[in-house]
Amino acid sequence: MRARHIRSFIGTALTAFCASLGAVALLLIFAYVLLQGFRALNPAFVTQLPVPVGESGGGVANGIVGSAITVALAIVIAMPIGLLSGLFLALFGRGWFPSVVRFLSDVLSGIPSIAIGLFAYILFVAPFRHFSALSASFAFAMLMLPVILRTSEDAVRSVPREIREGALALGMSEYATTMRIVVPAARSAIITGLLLSIARVTGETAPLIFTAFGTPFWELNPSNPMAQLPLQIFTYAISAYQSWHQQAWAGALLLICAVFVLNVFARLVLSPMAKR
Amino acid sequence: MIALEAPLRVKALSAYYGARRAIADVGMDFAKCSITALMGPSGCGKTTLLRCLNRIHEILPGARVEGEVLLDGENVYESGMSVIELRRRIGMVFQRPNPFPTLSILGNVLSGIPPGAPRRERFAAAEKALRSAALWDEVKDKLQKSSMALSLGQQQRLCIARALAVNPEVLLMDEPTGSLDPISTLSIEELMKVLAKRYTLAVVTHNMQQAARVSDYAAFMLAGEDGVGRLVEMDETSRIFTNPSDRRTEDYITGRFG
After folding, report:
1. Strand, helix or coil at B36?
2. A262 and A202 in contact (C-beta within 8 Å)?
3. Which of the four pLDDT bands, split at 50, 70 and 90, describes residue A1?
């Protein structure tokens, strides 16, 4: 009797301890980055261009804008393909073909991002002998695709069968049933998947090294090399200068905040309040 | 028993889920402007039979049908009648109220009406349907509100209104009160009696008291040893409940099994 209680207590304590380790790790990272990065974070950091070593001040405005452009283009590429294939899998998901698609998508989601970056390099950089933000967007799109595909498939699948049957029983066509009833009912879960896929690539650095490449200047043309926030953090962090280290921490803080906000948004969209 | 006027007739109907046969050789008529109850224990195939009538059975993978379903003399499985036209002529109400969650109350009622018609006509049809479903007075001030804000009983009447708005000849109901409380059940039953003056109703019910209360005709189905559902008998409801011709019907009615 007593031994059983003790075992139960130890078991509960051990699992609770392990569960809290994960949360504590995140909190520690966030606290440390906040501590280090907050000092270098000021209006100039988000509005100015980088300055040469030795000069004080300067910022990563070009990297923020560059990252935003690159991610936005990746969404434009990945969203339609991911949504439509997710819809296909949810509606016609039987037989060998959908199973193969699903399996390949799972494999794709496990491929290291640096390998995908190399792939984008071979495809879009090497033939033109020119780095470009577009090739980075392509690499990002490949990373987002499996996330969007699986979340949108699950979202459409989770719409109760009665809803679909109700629409068909009214004499609606398959197309109208899907577009006017089923997809809207899955809307919030689809948007959540999109936001999570964006969060997935926002902090990616490895594929950028040989695609977007980075530049210290303003560049808004996606067919040219473009500054990227994660790349700037990388460059600053491995440099020898104290002032650049400071800026790397501030950049990391910005990135973490962006990912955090995306995740919170994703939660809000899914909450029952938003469904009403 | 052949009713004089039956817009809907079933002949030698069998339905399958993949290799499994769910119902076999069902033949029956649904008399015009009356309520026909389909009764029987779980697994007897009464819901499958109902779902064959508007061809919603076949949307499940591997599901198929043999035999004939005649709507005004036309076999719905053969003629040039499209599934869409068929389902406009034979409406359906499900066991669990299934209003479309992202549409308003009005949007739900309008959803089956072709979007081509003028706005005023569509709205008039929606109001008529809501009145027929005895829901208009309760929702007329909140037509733009979400359908999910209604009570379950109201949601079910909304689903009936949605089906009526398409202007069908036949209305299929699959245990329409199966998930409702007694008071909502009563209001739906009252509504069914009113609707039977204008529509031909086929109602699956688990509940014998309900069949006795509302239906004009009753069919009793039973799954045999092989698990395949068959029609045991069909007759006027009063006869089924007082003097059934089959022993098994009597056993079921008197509560000896089921």
Report:
1. strand
2. yes
3. low
Residue B223 has pLDDT above 80, yes or no: yes
Rounded CA-CA distance B108/B103 in Å is 6
Q: What is the DSSP letter of A97?
A: H
Measured between beta carbons, the chain B residues lying within 8 angstroms of A275 are 101, 148
Residue B1 has pLDDT above 60, yes or no: no
Q: What percent of chain A has pLDDT over 70?
A: 97
Instruction: Find the CB nearest A172 among B112, B148, B163.
Output: B112
CB atoms within 10 A of CB B250: 15
| Burial class (CB within 10 angstroms; exposed 0-12, middle 13-18, buried 19+) of A263 | middle
B106 near B100, Cβ under 8 Å? Answer: no
A262 pLDDT more than 60: yes
pLDDT value at A141 more than 70: yes
3-class DSSP assignment, residue B134: coil
Q: Which of helix, strand or coil describes residue B252?
A: helix
Residues 19-78 of A with CB under 8 A from B: none
Q: Report which of B61, B60, B26 is spatially closest to residue B40, judged by C-alpha positions.
A: B26
Confidence (pLDDT) at B230: 95
Q: Chain A contact for B171, CB < 8 A?
A: no
CB nearest A169 (choices: B54, B85, B100) = B54
- Among the partner residues B86, B87, B146, nearest to A276 by beta-carbon distance: B146
Distance from CA of A172 to the nearest CA of B (A): 6
B160 touches chain A (CB under 8 A): no
Helix-then-strand count for chain A, H and E:
14, 0
Q: How far, in Å, CA of A251 to CA of A22, rounded?
A: 24
Whole-structure pTM value: 0.83
For B237, the enclosing helix (H) or strand (E) is: helix B237-242
Q: Do A169 and B111 touch (CB under 8 A)?
A: no
Q: Determine whether the interchain pair A171/B94 forms a contact, defined as Cβ–Cβ distance below 8 Å.
A: no
Mean pLDDT of A129-155: 96
Does the CB of A4 have a partner CB in chain B at under 8 Å?
A: no
Edge to edge, what strands does the sheet with B8-17 contain?
A: B74-75, B63-71, B8-17, B20-30, B229-236, B217-223, B35-39, B200-204, B170-174, B90-93
Give CA separation, B117 vs B110, B114, B125, in Å: 11, 6, 10
What tens digit of pLDDT does each residue of A7-42 get?
Answer: 999 999 999 999 999 899 989 999 999 999 988 888
Q: How far apart are CA B258 and CA B255, in angstroms?
A: 7
Mean pLDDT estimate for chain A = 92
